[in-house]
Design a protein that fits this description.
The structure is a single chain. The chain is mainly alpha-helical and 137 residues long. The protein has a domain of 75 residues. It contains 4 helices and no strands. It is elongated, with a radius of gyration of 36 Å.
Amino acid sequence: MDQIIGTMRDVVFATLSRMIIFLVCMAMMLQCFSKMLIVAEFYSNRAYIVRTFCINRDRPALHCGGQCQLHKRLQHDTNDNNTPDQRPTGHNDPLSSRSFFLTDCYIFLTPPSPDYALTRAGRPVDRPSTLFHPPGC
């Protein structure tokens, strides 16, 4: 019985995950092809748009054919896609990137002391030649 419930749960989870993936892909495709959908809808309903919505329907000599409405809808779609996110009016923008970063790291901390003795001989220190030697040719 537990195996059947586990199997059913797996099937339901797989189905739901496929549906979510399908919906996300469709949403992305609708966003990418929105202009094409507007143009396809215009050409499929062109006669109705010319009779009902066209600005120049009283002047047939202009041969607008509803292009004014198509351009208006495409412009509206472009404006909707290009509107920037509105920032709150009370938000202060930084004047410089330096205002976000600490410039001197020793303001609040004392510098660490080394665990080894510092020798300042002013001359080269003798090192074993077996370890420290220039690379051979």
